[in-house]
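My convention is simple: the sequence line spells out the residues, with the fold written below as integer tokens. I include a record here:
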Amino acid sequence: MLSQKSSSTPCKNKLKISNTRTKAKDNETSTNKVKSAQAAKSANESDDIIDVTPDKGSKKLKLKLSKINSHSKRATEKLKTQNAKAAVKHGLEDITSGISPIAKSVTQSRKLSLKKPLKRRCSFSPKDAEKDSKKNKVTKEETDDTLEDLTKYLPSNNQKKQLDIKSFFSKPRNTNHTQVQTKVEKDNLNLDETSNDSLLGLVSDNLVNGTLDTCKKEKASKSFEFDLNDSLNLEQVGSTQKTSAEIKHVFMTWRVVEYSVREYQVDNHRKQERVLQLVQIKNEEERAVCHLRDDWFLMEIEDEDIAYVSNLNDACRRSILCNNSKEFITVFPNTLISGTTIASGITCERQAVLNTRFKTEGQNEVMLVGTLTHEIFQWAISNNKFEMKDLVTKMNELLQQTKVLETLYTLDIDEQQIASKLKEYLPQVGLWKRNYLQDSQTSADESKPSITNIVDIEENVWSPYLGFKGKVDVSVEVKIHKRSRDKILAPLELKTGKMLSNLGSVEHRAQVTVYCLLMSERHHQPIDSGLLYYFKTNHLQQVPMPEQEKRAILIKRNDIARRLTLEREEQQLPALSRNKRICKWCPQKQTCLLHFKSRENGESWTSGIEEIYKNVLSNLKDEDFRYFSKWYELLLLEAYYECTANKTSYIWAKSSERRELQGVCFSHMLVCTSDVTSDMKYHYTFERCVNHFNQQTPMNIIPLIAGDRVIVSRENNRVFNETTGYILQVSENEVIVSAHQKLQKTDKVLYRIDKDETLSSLTTPLTNLANLFRVDSQLDNKLRQSIIHNKTPTVDIDPPVEENSEITGNLNEGQKQAICRCLQAKDFVMILGMPGSGKSTTTALLVQSLVCKGKKVLLTSYTHSAVDTILLKLLENGFTKFTRLGLPQRMHAKIRKYTAHEQTKLFTKTHQIKEYYEKQSVFASTCLGVNNPILAKHHFDYCIVDEASQITQPVCIGAVRLADVFVLIGDHNQLPPLVQSEKARSRGMDVSLFKYLSDEQPEAVVTLNQQYRMNKHIMSLANTLVYQNKMKCGNESIANAVLSLPHFNDVNLDSDMKRIIDPVHPVIFVDTDQRPDCEETIRSKKLVNTGEAILCEQIISSLLKAGLVESNLGVICPYRHQLKIIKDEISSLQNSKQIEVETIDKYQGKDKECIIVTFVRSNNKQEVGELLLDWRRINVALTRAKKKLILIGSRKTITGSTVLNQMLKILDDKKWTFIYS
């Protein structure tokens, strides 16, 4: 292949080998015509073939040695010699030394020989075959053991599938490089036993000394029907049936149900292997066996692990992985590991895992120089502009981009400083063209690689088959040397750092190896070599990928994936490195040792790095370690539940059609227009293909909205994540996406647009948690005293200045007291605001009061809407001294002009950015966005967190640790933090920081109990059930408010409906027990109540006829699927889209003149479900209505809920119930 090609290879050698293959292929074709004479070769026996077809009346297995075509002997021997020369010339012997730490970490005992040239599979002689046949001879005992293992996995006689025992064995290895196919009969269909996943290996055998025999490649592709249908015509794309490629290439995953270690015999030597008993994930009746030998034996694996095995498919149920096999196993394939993670894992596997789990500090100057150099280089090769003036012009353009200016601002660097650093690299860009770009090469050195074509820039590749993901700097076509006629596709990795050796660093070479594997997968051809370019030395290094190093990389990936996957409940970090030199400079040493102490019971004397241990953990107490351990475990429990309960984040696991029906995908999309913005964002307008399966559903009904992050992939079940971006706009027939990379093909190519759910919700809270224990931060030390050590908060005894009275003059006494307490606080304050008590108004005036005192404020909440609600209040008060951080598409339209994005987009100098941010008094962001480097640049006097009672402690900590004083605003009697894992909830994960500190420090709580939303009748329900009658109406007007229905007396309604909507009854419960059509049912595994949905529609229609405006009406339901039923029922009503139909959780913070609550549950067992047992959720539902509250449900069912049963007693006492018959 690329790494093994000799510059003196004659063309006739290629012809000889091709002829040899043709003869062997003809012989094999005739052999395969005999139905019972099929062979399957065990992958561990080099190139021996085991004939496992039983004779009639006998179960003996015949072992025979494969015959090597004599015509290939001379060619293969000559090729072997040439490969050895090429290996010496191009450094193939040295590559093993460069990457050997990976292999060493896997094998632990095997040392690679650096003296012998690497042996390719095609360099094989009859003598080699005879020698290896003796070495790898399989004993009768081993064969009997194997048959015994396999017998229990064979289908029973009454099953329709007739599967030959030979299908359990690995595919034959053909020494003459012809394609071997064995057939099995399944449901009267002939299926290829050879898996498409092994296509790369078979095509690899068609490479002769680095030259691809295209004729053979075409035959292989045709035989495997590996047409991915990237360019389907409109008739084809209109069909929702799977293409042949999708049917052929199945991503089949397995679960390990049992594994054992046993011995097998090779050449009179006993060796150990791991035997994995597997069941298919989607069909547990399907079973298989996998043997791990040689290097694979040392790979860690346990019961219940998930795996993908490359050659296990419908026709093959047994796999043997060993050093002579090109097959592989991917453990937890849904966990995609990046090339960067693999590279860092070579030095320290523990650091690689921590780098993924915990964010380190943002960009530094060196990283910024590297990023900008990459962009300049990629622009130059894309536009073929390498003149110095062009490069300087591009550099200046980059230095005027807002994102670059903001980074310079956070690093305290100006444009001139960074420009001087960049100019050191610009000459190397032009030199690269002259040395390595074919049309411009001036060097006389014929051995230099020659790049003939730039295929792609920043090619983004995901592969669940390999378990890798990566972004290739440049994808190129390259000749190994100038005189070569043959071009090979290869990744080009760019490095601006130091070149530590002539071969490049081990980490860099490992990264290139990962990209070779990924590009092989993406482009469906073998890529066994990559390129590594160092700017500083203008050195282009070839990085071959020998089989042993590829295997070592795959094993390393599996080891890291087992530590990173969220599909395992028990999570452990790799062992501590205990290397003083490495640990001293590790950016994760604080988190590493914190975990070591709190989760692994480590001590300074057992760490092996005692001095470093004491420096990073010196000020921490036992309570600190317990707090970290508790919340680390809780966050992992929740992440495990989210991963295992909801698989939608794995876009390859489900078809696009199914995901569209789940509301997380637009399927079968075609590009109709495209545009490029000034900041190099690619805007694509997509529309549905002809005859789309979901054509009747408007696209804007699907719950994908502007601002959602998305992944754009091809509809071929193979090219995942061609680009990422976010939605700009959704209409009935189109969606506009702002993409980060250019789509390579847009003409008649089908795409799928999936909601990006891969951004882990785990990384941010874990990082916040770790940052709380930084010993070098005074703010973090102070926060630990307040949260963990329960230090009593202090207040300033001096009264606030009088000027604040102008701002707070219209507030009630409780609101004024709350603001006063905040102004006096030195540590923290909690404001408990009951429903409708004016929390948003109070918060806005608090912000203004703080700014009047010269304070800098950070305003946050969990949701964008909550942040924007307070900012809108500020705008109403004429206050504009704030900046809003985040994506404008997720914000309220009136707020967008005040975003940093809009305000700074025309700036071209760093000082302009600096002046803008330093004059801002208020910074607003969601809690998950506070890790913005802009915020880290500022010191905040106050942090105000709205909806604090709905935020988990680690997420809230990320915001409050940025300020001297924090104010938490919320109500822990309403919705708690959303925690899906029952185990995590039972251990206290749903206890917010607001709730925790309110219980620990009740003297720091200020209560707002005067509400301005509900009339006194509606208020009485929550007052009795939850607030111990402490809630008061703000005034008489609020207390006596009645729903206005101007046409109530004129409209013609039946008596029952008039009774239900009558404004005289501000609260009414409609009992549906007498209506058999109002019983709950299961539809598509979802709970619904069609009768209640119809009743909702009738009540809504009556209210509208009586004169209620649609926007004043809302419907609340605890179950999402019921929402769709209700929306369908009311869709025929005029202006029905103005009626807000949402879940209880979505209605938190909202209110309407009239609210209809439908409880859905109606059965004879009093089963109300978990949602209706939660008294805090019921409290929210009962406190959203201002003047009229209509409750619909089955009385006999909801009495199964304690809080609802108490509610019914109150309703009975007040005669607010009505039996609907």
